[in-house]
Amino acid sequence: MNISRHHPRYLSLSVRERLTEALSVGIVVPQGLIAHGRGEAFDYLLGEKTSLSASKAMSVAAALLLTSNHPVISVNGNTVALVGADVVRLATLIGSPIEINLFHRSIRRERVLASYLRRLGARDVLGTTKKAQVTVSGIASLRRRVDVRGIGSADTVLIPLEDGDRAEALKRARKKVIAIDLNPLSRTSQVASVTIVDNVVRAIPALIRVVNRMHSMSRIELLRITRNFDNHKNIRRTLREMIEYLKGWQTN
Question: What is the per-residue pLDDT across 172-188, written as a single tens digit (0 to 9) for each?
Answer without folding.
Answer: 999 999 999 999 999 99
